[in-house]
Write a structure and sequence with these properties.
Chain A: Keywords: Cell membrane, Membrane, Transmembrane, Transmembrane helix, Transport. Chain A: Belongs to the binding-protein-dependent transport system permease family. Chain A: InterPro entries: MetI-like, MetI-like_sf. Chain A: Pfam families: BPD_transp_1 (PF00528). The structure holds three protein chains of three kinds. By secondary structure, chain A is an all-alpha fold. Chain A is built from 13 helices and two strands. In chain A, strands 1-2 form a two-stranded antiparallel sheet. The radius of gyration of chain A is 23 Å and the shape is flat. Chain B is built from 21 helices and 21 strands. Chain B is 36% helix and 25% strand. Chain B is globular and about 70 Å long. Chain B starts with a strand and ends with a helix. In chain B, a hairpin with a 2-residue loop joins strand 5 and strand 6. Chain C is mainly alpha-helical. Chain C is elongated. The chains are: A mainly alpha, B alpha/beta, C mainly alpha. At the B-C interface, strand 4, helix 13 and strand 17 of B face strand 1, helix 6 and helix 7 of C.
């Protein structure tokens, strides 16, 4: 019951997000045809094509419902710049981006877990918190540029750009992972601190548990709750971050497609990327909500 | 088992050092039940935790002698302390809802102790046995449940089961019944008594003299980190020699204290009830969906009368307060206030009359705007141009507190500010919802005296809601006993409490530990 | 004999030290924004004789590909970068507070609708939402302000909504009812001030986030257009010379980072104070 409600809420949010993106397109100055064409080729033929494709001759409500219907079936329209279905354009670039995002996510989460658990002593804790503060406050592209400058240009350890082989993945993945690790470590550390102040920790210690076991079996589980609920944020940050990181490291991927689409005002592509990112966020967020239900039995009530 | 001389526990902070325990001696012999009694901040909990090496973060412990189980604990390393915890001494804290890990099942929590202390054999079976030992029904099902799925009493039993799981010869219970209803408290005390009868040694920490009196052989009274008096339970509580112990014993409200002051010698005048009715509720009912919270309740409060409303948690007494106060509209029934209809009126009409009906809650701090000083808080309630200082003086607070923020005040001072504010509009009735439940017994005594004085001089009527039968018996003229949303019995307080007619009232009264009842 | 239990105490420098340094840095930044001429020379003066020179006493941050002094450009760029971030944050705070309060005080269904809208808006990653906006409205400083403002709005709206709920049910509001206060006075005297209390603090931290977003978008070429100096745009331009002159892109980024760190430190310090006051 509660699971269904969470999923229902997710669907509602997704619907509102898709609608908002659609409204943004309508709200753009000039006619819809103009904004879809953008800087692209402008001929009467293309205009009539657009009118046909987007069914601009139909009433607005019908257009809107049609847009939702097609988006729900994965049909995201046609790119006018590339003259291909948006789905194919994105599909071709999805893997490099996904690969980067996944590696970065795993790296960031692993780093955060290790740091939050191992830096409990006052001095290591101070060093780690300072590092977290710096990482969280640094623009991701600066991290990328510094890494690039040191490891590629000065030391020549990694390729400067491109997507050939695992070596090319290292620096971009680290760049993306570091700020994530910074945020997650802070959240986990805070969660562990809070949990260790709770009375049940005294009970656990009074049972003769080792401090390490108190941390692993009791406190960490409590600290996971706020961290897990950041899952949606994590997905969004990764998708937003790749746009910049792919530029810094000259990698192919969704980010490059998006940037190109924005500069050439290829609206169907931009819209599709934005709606896709919202979709990813909602899916991850709903998954996080459900994971929290598994972790914390108290949430299962009502 | 435990032999300690000149124990000091200090918490060094940047600017000042907190001396929680200042040189106490403590001996516990096998098989006896020793109790440490004290008010908040007396150092009793720190003492108990120091016995298992958990004095707290940053604590510095010094002693001339610190023997645990015949060995010098001052030389203990982390591993030795670990073996003491759970293995030699089990610790039971207040409120199992937060003292058991809320994310783990009860069975996992108890099983953890078994694993840590190298239990051989079927752990699940042992967990079930332990739950059965502390009289948890359906132990198999309960072991799979989480703490929040258990009632307060069952939770506390499960916590005790986890403390005794590894068979420690010493059980330390730190306020084990404080968050519980009286009937549940009686059951837990009986369970602890059972452990003691089985030959276990018990160290009981409590603020409640009556609870201690029921179980302990010996009592140590702590104040400000020192032991002010110690001795056999019966002799110490019936004839205390130290002034502080005398003060404590005198401060406990009960049937015997009616009409006299608690915080000092003297009597309180109780005015003759005039017969005028200030507030009358008839057939008050509140339903949320299919759930009936308040069921056909009649309340009548006469001018200058104190009416007690007692009941355990979930009995609906706080909802009655909200209905009478007019925050929540009743599903059925009417309230008449000062002779005019109170329910069913639009708020706009009630506003002018609101000043005559005031409210004091259990947690005064949350009832103050966090940005405001004492002066502003009290002034908000005053009619235009009224002065704050005389009001503060009436409740026994000095003018130096005027510009403080309530957060800088003690619990008793905060409740006095709340009372001053309630008095400001010259109300004819004050609804007091558990006003002294969060206070230490000596502070509670002062606040109860203050309320009695206010009634005597101003003739202000009060509806006094409490779970504490002693407090109600001490203060109230009439009493209503609530159970499951309904009033099961009502009448003059002496009649109801001395000659209860309803089974529930009898059960409630039998469960309450009283000083007089325990020391025979 | 002394026995120390649990973790030992460590003498720490006073917690104020970090706050004071950070606050000092922000005051300096404010001065830089208000009168950049006091601290640095012409950011546009090119010197073809001194191109891509390393940091020295003459050019603290070195020179860029046109021989312009990087320090001068960073100082003057502060105005652009911080103005965009401040304007965006102001927009987000004002709109967020209004919508959040509306939701918090509104009827159940209206509240639910608003809350879901906040959720939907925060479903878009900040950078992508801004890019959508820029794709429609075109690049430029104004686009950045509106885009970042809209994208960060749900954060404030949610905090304010939650806070409104807490305050609405607080004991002191109940108490004020007992003094016969009207609904409007209740809202003005008790609800509004206590709801707004934490807003300035989260806005300080939010400002840092806005600086990062603005720099990122400028880096992608969506913000202030060359040659006027802006931190993100400077990084973007200098990127091409990263192998020979890393200072051209890295040093502006370091200044941006320091500003964000300072804002975060000050914001968290204030947050602790506010929490201490309320809790």
């Amino acid at each position: 019951m509660i699971v269904l409600r969470r999923i229902g809420t997710g669907l509602v949010v997704l619907w509102v997000a898709a609608t908002a993106a659609y409204l943004a397109l309508l709200a753009a100055p000039g006619s819809t045809v103009d904004s879809i064409i953008g800087d692209g080729a402008d001929t009467p033929l293309i205009r009539s094509q657009i009118v046909q494709e987007w069914h601009l001759d139909r009433p607005a409500v019908v257009q809107y419902v049609d847009y939702l219907w097609r988006a729900a079936h994965g049909d995201l329209g046609r790119s006018y710049l590339l003259q291909r279905p948006v789905r194919d354009v994105l599909g071709a670039q999805l893997w490099p981006t996904l690969k980067l995002a996944l590696v970065a996510a795993v790296l960031g989460i692993a780093l955060a877990l290790v740091l939050a658990v191992t830096t409990r002593r006052p001095w290591s804790r101070r060093v780690s918190s300072t590092a977290e503060l710096v990482l969280v406050s640094t623009p991701p592209f600066l991290i990328g540029l510094v890494l690039l400058s040191v490891f590629s240009f000065q030391l020549g350890l990694f390729p400067v750009s491109g997507d050939r082989g695992a070596a090319a993945l290292v620096l971009p993945a680290v760049t993306l992972a570091l700020p994530i690790a910074g945020v997650l470590t802070q959240v986990l550390r805070d969660g562990i601190d809070r949990a260790l102040d709770e009375p049940f920790v005294i009970t656990a210690r009074a049972r003769g548990l080792r401090e390490r076991a108190v941390l692993a079996r009791h406190a960490l589980r409590h600290a996971l709750l706020p961290a897990v609920s950041l899952l949606g944020w994590l997905g969004g940050t990764l998708l937003g971050g790749v746009v910049i990181i792919e530029t810094v490291f000259g990698r192919p991927g969704l980010g490059q497609v998006t940037l190109q689409a924005v500069t050439s005002e290829d609206m169907p592509v931009v819209l599709a990327v934005v709606v896709f990112s919202a979709f990813a966020y909602v899916v991850l967020n709903t998954a996080a909500d459900l994971a929290c239900l598994v972790i914390d039995p108290r949430l299962r009530r009502s | 088992m435990i032999a300690i001389r000149d124990l000091h526990v200090t918490f060094p902070h940047r600017r000042h050092t907190v001396e929680a325990v200042r040189g106490i001696d403590l001996d516990i012999e096998p098989g006896e039940c020793v109790a440490i009694v004290g008010e908040s901040g007396s150092g009793k909990s720190v003492t108990a935790r120091t016995l298992v090496g958990l004095a707290g973060p940053g604590a510095v412990v010094r002693s001339a002698k610190f023997e645990v189980d015949g060995r010098d604990a001052r030389a203990f390393g982390p591993e030795e302390w670990r073996r003491v915890r759970g293995g030699f001494a089990g610790l039971v804290l207040q409120d199992a809802l937060v003292s058991l890990d809320p994310l783990r099942t009860v069975g996992a929590e108890i099983g953890e102790v078994l694993r840590v202390h190298g239990h051989r054999g079927d752990r699940d079976l042992r967990v079930r046995d332990l739950l059965a030992t502390v009289h948890v029904p359906e132990p198999e099902r309960r072991a799979r449940q989480h703490p929040h799925q258990l009632s307060g009493g069952l939770r506390q039993r499960a916590l005790i089961a986890s403390a005794i799981a590894a068979g420690p010869p010493l059980l330390i219970a730190d306020e084990p019944t404080t968050a519980l209803d009286v009937t549940v408290q009686a059951q837990i005390l009986a369970l602890l008594g059972e452990r003691r009868a089985a030959g276990e040694t018990l160290l009981l920490i409590s603020h409640d003299l009556a609870v201690v009196a029921r179980l302990a052989d010996r009592v140590l009274v702590m104040r400000d980190g020192r032991i002010v008096e110690s001795g056999g339970t019966a002799s110490l509580l019936s004839a205390p020699s130290h002034p502080y112990t005398q003060e404590l014993v005198r401060a406990v409200p009960s049937a015997a204290t009616r009409g006299r002051r608690l915080s000092e010698a003297g009597v309180v005048a109780a005015p003759e009830p005039s017969g005028d009715v200030v507030l009358e509720a008839r057939g008050l009912t509140k339903r949320y969906g299919r759930h009936t919270v308040v069921d056909d309740v009649d309340v009548r409060v006469g001018r200058g009368e104190i009416v007690g409303l007692v009941g355990e948690s979930g009995s609906g007494k706080t909802t009655v307060a909200q209905l009478l106060f007019g925050l929540v509209a009743p599903t059925a029934g009417t309230v008449t206030f000062e002779g005019e209809a109170w329910t069913g009126q639009p708020e706009r009409r009630r506003r002018a009359r609101r000043r005559h009906l005031q409210l004091i809650s259990q947690d005064p701090l949350s009832s103050f705007d966090p940005r405001w000083t004492v002066r502003k808080i009290v002034a908000e309630a005053l009619p235009r141009g009224g002065a704050v200082e005389p009001l503060l003086e009436r409740v026994g607070l000095g003018a130096e507190l005027l510009d403080r923020n309530p957060r800088q005040l003690s619990g008793g001072q905060r409740q006095r500010v709340a009372i001053a504010r309630a008095l400001a509009p010259r109300p004819s009735l004050i609804i007091c919802d558990e006003p002294v439940s969060a206070l230490d017994v000596s502070v509670q005594a002062q606040v109860l005296d203050l309320l009695a004085d206010i009634r005597a001089t101003d003739g202000t009527a009060m509806l006094f809601i409490s779970h504490d039968l002693g407090v109600v018996h001490h203060l109230a003229d009439r009493v209503l006993v609530m159970h499951d949303g309904a009033v099961v019995e009502s009448g003059p307080v002496d009649d109801v409490f001395h000659h209860p007619r309803h089974d529930y009232t009898r059960e409630l009264l039998a469960a309450v530990p009283t000083l007089e009842g325990e020391i025979r | 004999m002394t026995l120390v239990l649990d973790r030992p105490l460590v003498l720490r420098p006073p917690r104020y030290a970090g706050f004071l340094v950070a606050a000092g840095f922000l005051v300096l930044m404010l001065a830089v924004v208000l009168v950049p001429g006091l601290f640095a020379g012409d950011p546009l003066a090119a010197d073809p004789m001194h191109v891509l020179e390393a940091p020295s006493t003459a050019h603290w941050f070195g020179t860029d590909q046109l021989g312009r002094d990087v320090f001068d450009r960073v100082v003057h760029g502060a105005r652009h970068s911080l103005a965009i971030a401040t304007a965006a944050t102001l927009l987000a705070v004002v709109a967020g507070v209004l919508l959040g309060m509306l939701a918090g005080l509104a009827h159940k269904y209206a509240d639910e609708a608003l809350a879901r809208s906040f959720d939907a808006l925060s479903a878009f990653p900040l950078i992508l939402l801004a890019l959508l906006f820029i794709a429609i409205a075109g690049p430029g400083a104004l686009s950045l302000v509106v885009a970042i403002g809209i994208a960060t709005l749900p954060h404030y709206a949610r905090v304010v909504r939650a806070q409104t709920f807490v305050v609405r049910q607080a004991g002191y509001v109940t108490q004020a009812v007992a003094f016969g206060r009207s609904r409007l006075r209740l809202v003005l005297r008790h609800v509004l001030p206590n709801v707004l209390g934490p807003v300035p603090v989260i806005a300080v931290i939010g400002l840092g986030e806005a600086i990062l977003a603005a720099a990122g978008l400028s880096f992608l070429g969506m913000g202030t257009q060359p040659p006027s100096p802006e931190w993100g745009a400077m990084l973007s331009e200098g990127r091409n010379y990263l192998s020979v002159a890393p200072w051209v892109s890295v040093l502006p980024g370091v200044v941006a980072t320091l500003t964000v760190i300072a804002l975060t430190v000050v914001g968290r310090h204030l947050q602790r104070r506010v929490e201490g006051r309320l809790g």
